[in-house]
Amino acid sequence: MGGPQAEDPAVARAQSPGSGAPPASGWASLVPELLVNDLAASLTFWCGRLGFHVAYDRPASGFAYLEREGAQVMLCRRNAGWETGDMRPPLGQGINLQVKVASLAPIVAALDAAGWPLLEEPQEAWYRVGDYEGGQREFLVQDPDGYLVRLAEDLGRRPVPISPTS
Length: 166
Hints:
It is built from three helices and nine strands; from the N terminus they run αββαββββαβββ. Helices cover 16% and strands 39% of the residues.
């Protein structure tokens, strides 16, 4: 019938050579994969500023799997393969990725040293969770492609404030 079929680009990307190993914290049940315009710039931000490290990568296909304190994210250079609509900046509109960390201070210092602007400065926030409130110190920053990242440091729990009755 026809000649040999062209190799599937998704298969080629998945099988391209790489380095590293599975995440030390194990495989998370949900891991976002962010399509990025410039993988090197994204790695500088995610690893150099936010403190993630590359668990494994496939440089030839523009892919890196990152982790930090159990948080995991995949970065993939845009290749039009999985783009389901117009990719206008900022990317990821309508979503923020919360990353729990032990301490915000070194991350804020790294961003400040790089002159990287914060979308929201660090602040204390308390959220209702059933019969208590969970607290965190948090801030918002955008990555090079505009993905919104909320970094949060745990402040513990407190009872729900009692409202005065009328």
